[in-house]
From TrEMBL, chain A:
The chain crosses the membrane at residues 64-90, 111-137, 157-181, 188-207, 327-345. The lineage of its organism: Bacteria, Bacillati, Actinomycetota, Actinomycetes, Streptosporangiales. This is Transporter. Keywords: Membrane, Transmembrane, Transmembrane helix. The keyword Transmembrane applies.
From TrEMBL, chain B:
Residues 5-230 form the ABC transporter domain. InterPro entries: AAA+_ATPase (IPR003593), ABC_transporter-like_ATP-bd (IPR003439), ABC_Transporter_VariousFunc (IPR051782), P-loop_NTPase (IPR027417). This is ABC transporter ATP-binding protein. It comes from the Bacteria.
């Protein structure tokens, strides 16, 4: 049975191996250089406190490759579900060969167990290798990424660490199960993709923020969590500021909410929204004084008036706990679908 | 007489449609059994149930004393060559034999090699490139080399040309002659079954219309032609057709028929099967008439 499974699977396995070899080669060749340039950059910027500028430049330079490898890790589980999972049984049903193989002296339960075990483990190994290699490679970039592409940001989180392994296992068994129910390859592939994407969207939007109770706290305003100063109208209007998804002292946190509180503690603006602040734009600390405005003094003034940020966030330290919890959830989903597929192949499928 | 297959009120339902309903069959051991019937009679469903491919919705089925497909041991005892003889298009002939060897504890590698040699099949040939006849022979080889006690073949020759059909059935006959192998073979063509079978079952609409050894069936059924008024004197009329002058009937009788009113002639197996299928049709007509009244 193992021989047959391998014989039918070796083509896909070779293709996957080729992809992984190319990916790891690219990462292995560029990774050390990336790390040393990051170390040199940090050493250079720390004395004169210009690291923000270094981060922007460093990240911008490598953004394309960063996005590309992250995309590979995100796409890999979906491809496994589509091309390994969905056709696993539909291909047999469409060719009628299930009638051949299920009448050898091997029960179909055992047939499925070997198929799921071998191909599923290969899928998990590939995704795990891919995920960890990319996590190692992109470490310097993750430390310097812009807020939207930080380590805890939904898209990046799913392309790092061990969750890709959970995604791959789930996508594979999902494909197999959908294939059993639908019995035709193309509809099964389409349905698998739709279901997998739906789960992958629901996870960061609905589930992941609540896997661990998020931290809610208030912070003084600064350039980290506020920004977008501008004056409404010509000259005399109020000064508007908007809220940014940042938390002072918690760099890299996944910010779920960043609200602006007025001195009475009322929320007057949410994340990305702007609200007027009663400070003068023509005189005082927030007024442009000849050259570029001294924003630090302006923030001090705004904080003195009693304006604060209320942030709800998952701090960066929770990266690995969240990775483990999420992988566990996908493992449970995988086990559930596996159980269902065994039940279905014995009882209903023929 | 022991049985290779016993079904009691067996039924299989797909959604709301019964593919096989209330089927009771007893197939004796030691025969090459032909299962014949019109399309939709439930032949394929019965054979799939017997091989364990399907689970019955109702009733019981017992094959070689066990529940079909339940254990590896049971699977090893029953071979199944499915309709259209599916094989893996991407695997070579040799790889199919390897598959058989890997998946069957009683695999007869010598038999498989010998058959492939006789058939002149190139072991390195991909199965997808084989002709229909060669593919059927490969599937049969897999079924035989598994060394089952019962080999089930579901319309194996339906899509083959006459020559390939003859070769396939010849191969099957040779294989069964050499070994103590029970065979159940379905077809809707009596001429195919006549070549290889010594026992015949006619299945119409899930019911067994007729079952028996071919030579006995032929010895006890007669075609009679004679005047219609003499019809009353006959028993066990299977089918009858009438013209103005005379009637032609098929009767079952263990004793020779000496009634001078009738001219007795021999029946071919095909005519015999048709007579039994026809009887069913006649019953249907009668029911329809009664409903109309």
């Amino acid at each position: 049975m193992i021989w047959l499974t391998w014989r039918q699977f070796r083509g896909s396995a070779a293709l996957m191996a080729a992809v992984l070899v190319v990916l790891t080669a690219v990462l292995a060749l560029t990774g050390p250089d990336l790390a040393s340039r990051y170390a040199a950059g940090i050493a250079g910027c720390t004395p004169d406190d210009t690291c923000d500028r270094f981060f922007d430049g460093f990240f911008g330079e490598h953004q394309l490759l960063f996005v590309a490898v992250s995309f590979v890790v995100l796409a890999l589980p979906a491809l496994v579900g589509l091309f390994w999972g969905a056709p696993l049984i539909t291909r047999e049903l469409e060719a009628g060969t299930h009638l051949l193989v299920w009448n050898q002296s091997v029960t179909r339960g055992r047939w499925l167990a070997v198929k799921l075990g071998l191909v599923g483990l290969a899928a998990m190994a590939a995704a795990c290798l891919c995920g960890l290699a990319v996590t190692w490679w992109s470490d310097p970039l993750d430390k310097s990424a812009v807020l939207d592409l930080a380590l805890m940001a939904p898209l990046v989180f799913g392309a790092r660490g061990i969750v890709p392994m959970g995604y791959a296992a789930f996508a594979f068994v999902l494909g197999v199960t959908v294939g059993m129910l639908v019995r035709r390859t193309l509809p099964a592939m389409a349905l698998t993709l739709a279901a997998f994407v739906a789960v992958q969207l629901a996870m960061p939007l609905l589930v992941r923020p609540h896997l661990m109770p998020p931290v809610t706290s208030t912070f003084e305003l600064s350039h980290v969590n506020g920004g977008g100063f501008h004056v409404q109208g010509e000259g005399g209007g109020p000064v508007l500021i908007s809220m940014q998804p940042g938390v002072p002292g918690h760099a890299g946190a996944w910010v779920l909410a960043s609200d602006l509180l007025d001195p009475s503690g009322r929320t007057i603006a949410g994340m990305g929204e702007e609200a007027p602040i009663p400070v003068s734009a023509t005189s005082g600390p927030c007024a442009p004084q000849g050259g570029p405005p001294n924003l630090d003094a302006c923030w001090v003034e705004i904080n003195r008036l009693g304006y604060r940020q209320q942030a709800t966030y998952q701090p960066l330290e929770r990266f690995w706990p969240l990775q483990w919890i999420e992988t566990g959830i996908y493992a449970l989903l995988t086990l559930g679908l596996t159980w269902f597929s065994f039940w279905w192949i014995r009882r209903r499928l023929s | 007489m022991t049985s290779v297959l016993q079904a009691q009120a067996l039924g299989k339902k797909y959604g709301k449609r019964w593919a096989l309903r209330d089927c009771t069959v007893d197939i004796p051991a030691g025969h090459v059994v032909g299962l014949v019937g019109p399309n939709g009679a439930g032949k394929t469903t019965l054979l799939k149930l017997a091989s364990g491919q399907l689970e019955p919705t109702a009733g019981d089925i017992n094959v070689l004393g066990g529940r079909p497909g339940s254990t590896p041991a049971q699977l090893a005892r029953v071979g199944f060559v499915a309709q259209d003889t599916p094989v893996y298009a991407g695997l070579t002939v040799a790889e199919h034999l390897r598959l058989g060897a890997r998946l069957n504890p009683r695999w007869d590698a010598a038999l498989a090699r010998e058959r492939i040699g006789q058939l002149d099949l190139d072991p390195s040939h991909r199965a997808g490139k084989l002709s229909g006849g060669e593919r059927a022979q490969l599937a049969l080889t897999l079924g035989l080399a598994k060394r089952p006690e019962l080999l089930i073949l579901d319309e194996p020759v339906a899509s083959l040309d006459p020559l390939a059909r003859r070769d396939f059935l010849q191969g099957l006959t040779e294989a069964t002659a050499g070994h103590k192998l029970n065979v159940v073979l379905s077809s809707h063509l009596v001429s195919d079954l006549e070549r290889v079978c010594d026992y015949l079952i006619v299945l119409v609409d899930s019911r067994v219309r007729m079952a028996g050894k071919v030579d006995q069936l032929l010895a006890t059924h007669h075609r009679l032609t004679g005047p219609r008024h003499a019809l009353d004197r006959l028993q066990h009329v299977i089918s009858a057709s009438h013209t103005d002058r005379q009637s032609a009937v098929v009767v079952r009788s263990d004793a020779p028929i000496h009634d001078p009113a009738w001219t007795v002639s021999r029946l071919s197996l095909e005519d015999l099967v048709l007579a039994y299928m026809d009887k069913h049709a006649a019953e249907n007509r009668r029911v329809a008439l009664e409903v109309q009244r």
